[in-house]
Q: What sequence folds into this?
């Protein structure tokens, strides 16, 4: 992930007027960063799936999807489906840019690797199926914000 930084033009004071001479501060500018414009699918730690807005758009903004798996190619497939299809899974809106599929049973059945952290993959369309290759290297996604806060506080001492 590319994070743009800018050197702060000042030295911040700490405590009773003490300064940290020679310290170069980096300004964190990730806040408000653009969301990915390419389709991405995240496998959550417990096996559920989430799609970004670009992935949902690529599928035609369905209310439900079918889950497919090509074992030989190690490809997860997601295809738009009607909500009344007995094999469909509802696509639940988490936010304006994130949509969830309760796919824990699917992930367990096909032994799709899950772990302590979610893993994000680039996805692409194969005809009417959004495909995710498990042969590709995933982008590690940090855990919950409260867990991150605890780990940062613990590391800071």
A:
């Amino acid at each position: 992930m590319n994070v743009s930084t800018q050197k702060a033009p000042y030295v911040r004071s700490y405590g009773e007027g003490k300064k940290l001479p020679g310290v170069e501060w980096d300004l964190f500018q990730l806040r408000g960063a653009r969301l990915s414009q390419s389709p991405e699918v995240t496998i959550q730690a417990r096996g559920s799936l989430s799609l970004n807005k670009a992935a949902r758009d690529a599928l035609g903004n369905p209310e439900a999807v079918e889950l497919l798996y090509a074992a030989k190619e190690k490809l997860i497939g997601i295809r738009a489906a009607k909500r009344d299809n007995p094999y469909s899974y509802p696509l639940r809106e988490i936010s304006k840019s994130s949509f969830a599929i309760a796919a824990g049973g699917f992930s367990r059945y096909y032994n799709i690797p899950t772990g302590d952290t979610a893993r994000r993959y680039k996805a692409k369309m194969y005809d009417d199926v959004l495909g995710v290759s498990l042969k590709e290297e995933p982008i590690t996604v940090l855990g919950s914000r409260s867990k991150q806060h605890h780990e940062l506080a613990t590391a800071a001492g």
